[in-house]
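Tutorial, part two.
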Amino acid sequence: MRNRITFTRKERILLGGWFLLLWIIVWLRAALVPVVPDEVFSYFLYGESGFYFPPEAQIDANNHVVNSFLTHVSVSCFGHSLLAIRLPNVLCFVVYFVSIVGISKQLPTKGGFWISLFSFSGIFYLLEFFSLSRGYGMSFAFLLLGIWQLMVLQKQFRWKNVLVLLLATILALGSNLSLFFCFSVMTAWLVLLLAGFIRQNGKRTIVPALLTLGAFGGVLLFFYNYIVFLNNRDMLYYGLQDGFPYASLQTLLIELTTVDFPWMYWFLLVLSAAIVLLAIGRLFGQKLWKSITDNRFVFLTLLLANLAGIFYSVYKMDAAAPSDRTAAHLIPLFIGAGVFLLPSFTKDRWLSWSQLVFLLFPLVSFSTFSLYSNHFWIDDRIDHRAYEILLEESARAPKPVTISGFRYFDRMYAFENLQMESKLPAYDVETWPNDCSDFFLLTPGELRMNRHKTKNYKILFRDPYSGNLLLKRNTFLPRKAVARRWSTAEPDSLEFLNLGSFAIDSLSSRNMIADIKCRFQFEGSGERYIATAALFDKDLNLLMLKESFHLNQLKTDWDNRSVTRFSIPFCNLPPETREIRLYIFNDKKSLHGKFQALTTLYQLGQ
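Running the prediction step on this input gives:
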C-alpha cells in the first residue's frame, strides 16, 4: 500500500536542504569537537586493536560491538584521524534521517509530516552522538529504522521488510544494549502480525514464519544472555542509584536544555497524561486486531514497555537507573508517542494545532548548539591548541620531558599524541600530585585542591569551554644521566621483554626518569603490550607495579624497525626503593619479532 503523501518541488528542496544542513553540522562537529574520554578509550581498546568481539575483546559494557567493529574498519581504510574514528556514526545519520522521513510519512497529513520530521531530527542532544565514536548515534538510527519497518509491516506484510527489521535488531542491540526492551516488544508485535499473515495466506507461510521467529528469537536470546553475563560480573555499571525520576528524567532534561526547571516536569506530566488519555480513547471500542495494525500505538507501546522495564530493574532488581545517554532513546519514543496520538496538524482543525507543542523540543535543544564542544562531556574538553602549545614548549625543555596530571585525561592525551606522531612527552598519571614534573594538565578543581603543588608553575593555556588547564614549571629541574642499559632479543612468545634493571641506593634522588629509545618489530596492535615498571625493596619485595601505557598509544604500525622513544617518570619514589625493573609486559605471550632498546635512567633535581 503506497502512502498518499506527495511533495511539491519546493517541498522536496526544503526536505533536501534540511537534511544537508543537519549533515553538514554533524560533519563539522565530527572534525572540530575534541575527543571525549569514552570514545578514545573504546578506540584504543577495541577500534584500533581489532579486538572488538568477545571473548577476544575485553568483556565490558563499554564495548559497543558494532561501533567498535565499524571503527576498526574505518581506521583500517582511512587512517587513524579523528574524523576516521567517527566516520561510521556520521554515515549512520543518513539511515537516521531516511528512517525519520519514512516514519513521518505514515502520518495522514502533510502538516503532521513536517512536525514529525522537525521534532525527530532537530533534537541537538541526539545529533551530538552522530559526531562521536560511541555507538549511541548509530543505535538511534537502527532503532528508528526498525520502527519504520514495523509500521510498514502493519500496512502490508512483506518479507523484505521483515529482513530489514531483523538486520536493524542485530545492529541496534550490537550498538546499544539499552534498546533490548524496544526490540523485544517489536519482536512480539511481529509475532502478532505473522499470525495474521499466516491466517490470510494459509499453511504455505508456516515454514518461513517459523524460520523468521527462530531468527528473531535467537538474536534476542543471544543478547539477553550477554546482558545477564555482564550483569553477573557487575559490568552493567553505568547509571545512577538515585531512582528513575532523577536518574533518567532529570538528567535528560538537563542534557536537552542545560537547565533544570520544575515547570518542565509539570509540562511533561500534563503532556504524558494527555497522550495516555488519547490512547485509551482511541483503543476504546476498537477491535484487538485493528489495534495491532494501527501505527498510532507503536511508539507509546515501546515507551511504556521501556518504562516498565526500567521500573522493574530499578525497584525489583536493585539495578542502576539509566541516565543521560543510556536513557536517550526515551526521547524519540516520547516524541513519537505524542506526534502519532495527537490529531495530525491541519490548518482548519484547531485541536490539531496541539501537535505543534513537539516543536518545542528541538527549539530548546538547539539552545545547547555548538560546533566545538559536546554538551555532555563539556567538563572533559581539552582544545587541540593546548597540545600544540605543549609541543612548542616541550621542544625548549631539557630532555626527557615530563608531564603529569588528572588521570581522566590520559587516553585523550594519548590520542592527540598519536596524531602528532608521538612527539609529545609521555603522559603520566601515577605521579600526580607532585611538584617536579615539567608540565601539568589539570581540571580547575584539581588546581584548587593542589595549590601547594603548583605554586612554582604558570598557566600556559585555559580551555574556553571547560576551563581545563595546561601548566608549565617556571624553572625546569636539572636532570643527569646516572645509568644506561642496552637490551636486545628476537622474542618468540615471551611474556616479558626486559628494558633494564637499575639499583637505587638510599642517597639517590627520589625523583627519576627512565628514557627508552627502542626498535620493536611485530605484527598486529600494540594493545597487548604494556610498558611497565616494578619497584622493589632491598629484600626484593614488590613495592609498586606501575603499568604506564599500552604500546598502541605510541603508534599504530609496528611492522617496521623505526625508532620509538618514550619515558617513564618516577616522582617521590618510596624511600625503601632499592631496585627499578623496566619491561614490556605481554600477557598473551604472543610477541614474535625483533626488539632492541637503550634505556637511560636520569636523576631529576640536585
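The first strand starts at residue 403 and ends at 405. In part three we will examine how such features are distributed along the chain.
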